Amino acid sequence: MISKTMENALNKQIELEGYASFFYLSMASWCDREGLEGCAKFLHRQSDEERNHMLRIFHYISEVDGHALTPNIPQPPHEFESIQQILELVYAHEQKVTKSINEMLGLCYKENDYNTLNFLQWYVEEQREEENLARGILDKVKLIGNGSQSLYFIDQELERINTQQLAAEAASGEA
Q1: What CATH number does residue 149 fall under?
Q2: Distances from the Cα of 19 to the Cαs of 89, 94, 123, in angstroms?
Q3: Secondary structure of the chain as H, E, C letters
Q4: Domain ranges, residue 149
Q5: pLDDT in single tens digits along all 175 residues of the chain
Q6: How many domains does the chain contain in total?
Q7: What is the CB neighbour count within 10 angstroms for residue 121?
Q8: In 10 A of CB 43, how many CB atoms?
Q9: pTM of the full predicted structure?
């Protein structure tokens, strides 16, 4: 059994994860339009991952006799200034998700909800990885710079990162 307070918090997290999925999908579409195939693939994959995060919470709520709600997701932006802006937005959004997870952990302690606390531990690790990945990409983008050929190298770098992540998932049986 889960408290209404925790159920509401988890349903808000479902909405946040769903928005992230659509936000990254919108970014992927922009990259496709701009000819940034590697960036688009990376963002499509990130979108799928966020949807899976959303569904994981959705199923958990049902498992603990709560009522998972399909999210009311606001329309994300469709126009962006640059791939650099997109990557900064990804990092900022991941930080927002981390903050939300941390707030739910505090609520778990307040509510003595150790099942949800245990469930959320996976998200703690996942968010550490997501923030580290986004920060690392931004660091590489800074090294690549804003020259006329920078888009090509950024696109290639994101394609490389995407390929590495897919290989790691396949090796661990996640794919």
Answers
A1: 1.20.1260.10
A2: 13, 12, 17
A3: CCCHHHHHHHHHHHHHHHHHHHHHHHHHHHHHHCCCHHHHHHHHHHHHHHHHHHHHHHHHHHHCCCCCCCCCCCCCCCCCCCHHHHHHHHHHHHHHHHHHHHHHHHHHHHHCCHHHHHHHHHHHHHHHHHHHHHHHHHHHHHHHCCCCCHHHHHHHHHHHHHHHHHHHHHHHCCC
A4: 4-172
A5: 899 999 999 999 999 999 999 999 999 999 999 999 999 999 999 999 999 999 999 999 999 999 999 999 999 999 999 999 999 999 999 999 999 999 999 999 999 999 999 999 999 999 999 999 999 999 988 888 877 688 888 888 889 888 888 888 888 886 5
A6: 1
A7: 12
A8: 27
A9: 0.90
Which token pair is 165? 């992540």
Of 3, 17, 7, 28, nearest to 96 by C-alpha is 17
